[in-house]
Amino acid sequence: MLREGESLGEAGKTKIIAIILVLIIIAGIGAGIYYYFVARPKPLKLLLTYNVSDPDERKVAEILKVTWAELGIDLETRGMEWDAQWELAKADPLKAQDVFVFYWWPTILSAYDYLFNMFHSEEEILFNLCYYNNSEFDELIDEAFALEGANRTKALELYEEAQTILMEDCPAICFYDLKNIHIIRKGIKGYADNPAYPHVVFWYELQPPTDSENDTFVEAWDSIIFTTCDPSESFSNEIIVMHSMYETLLRYLPNGTIVGVLATNWTVSEDGKTWTFWLRKDVKFHDGTPFNATAVKFSIERTIDMGMGAAFIWDSVDQIITFDDNPYKVQFKLKYPAPLDTIACSSYGAFIFSPSLAKQGNNTQIWQWLNEGVFKGSPPYSYGTGPYYLYDWKPGEYAIFKKFDDYWGGWDGPHYEMIIVKYVAEPTTRKQGIIGEEYDWTLGLPLEELDDVDASGVAVVVATPSYQNLLGLLNTRKPPLDNKLVRQALAYATPYEQIINEVMLGKYAVKSVGPVPRGIFGFSENIPQYEFNLTKAAELFEQAGIKTPKSAATIMADIVSLIPCFLAIAFSPIPVRKRGVDEWDSEAI
Q1: At what angle do helices 10-34 and 552-570 cross, to 10 degrees?
Q2: pLDDT (tens digit, 9 = 90+) per residue, 215-235?
Q3: pTM, entire model
């Protein structure tokens, strides 16, 4: 205590200031600790699953984990085998993952494929793994699909309206549209990566280098080639070889044009419910059976009856009619209007095969023959009209194909006599094989190594648009994602450009504009989009009543930011009242 007439000494003043400052800091740290461990909101815990074998999906998950943590979200990222994460999603929506990250590519080359499979209401869960249910949306896309064959302008308007509703409801995060990337030996001509059939090499179109006598084309794949040899069941990697073994009525070109393959002409009735196809003559199957309308009817009816793979594409078909007076004419009567020309181009489920298979028995017996019995005899081991037939197959290792001499397209000009497709699991082995000229074609190398391949002078890296995109389906049945505002917040909290730059090196993908990729009929630039905006995301969380905690680092940063204020208070003039003096005198300190 000061005596009358004395002022506080410098040492004493410093001591008091220090004590005050320490007390303030202790109080601030204590308040921060109390908030962090007791009072602060608990983190929002979410589970994200991705395909454990896909490095791109893993990287996307890692970026989201870090970014969403800034909003107080504790995101568990779990790599799983595809079937395992699919089963988790189908079992019980309330116990399923919150975010399901995966790639999608179409079976039917239409916006309907994306919008129906992933977002149309389902009684039994299949691919609508966000469990979205909106009758207005369903009606719009169903009507659009029905009009595709007869009124594409109106169909496009309906698809745009449906996608506007979808983006507002936000049952999915649309990350990016992928580019098809393949590596091919220099000098090989005729290869075009058709986005409608991702990574399908149409071998018939390939031309060996002019300075080479090599008549064998070797592909190195990063996955198992066959899971089935039955074209009615196929819905997996078989696509890479099936399109050279088996053919479809029509084919979808990269520019969006539909051209005839086994059909030469086709018409549709005004009501969109009757489609007539005129077929190519003088075509043989690998077993020597002539191709005609009977084969078309047999093939598609068997695929429908089996109900496996992509059989759903023929749901609109009510009846297939052949004509005794014209074996090269076939007519489809539909239950409802549908774009059968697009369906007939499908990458799966539209293959035509020899009706001679009927002699093997019922559908199951035919399946057993194609996958087992046929290999007990002599090649060919396939029953298509394609330019190459299956000559040899060692499951899990390789498949060998040979030129079908009686192919209807003829063999003028340079062609490969033999195709070998190998399963080569290790990326390093595939890279060394393509540079070492052991392989002619490969894919699936780490993106960071593609420049090395380009620089080798032996092979080139080609990146072209695809109809494949990466999505994060959001669980609309499980709290808190059953709240639209929370889903929108996650969409705004997604750093799209960072993901494209870090995961796809800024050049192997483009930001998605909704769930339908560019180039597919039904795509629209006019639908609303989400951009990265953490401030907007935080506002939406607040509107939804979701309080997310600050991180420990943020709390400490807040405390540190207040220290200058503490110092200003501590070092501000402290007035001292002198005994006998009636006013405050700050100069005495």
Answers
A1: 160
A2: 999 999 998 888 899 999 998
A3: 0.81
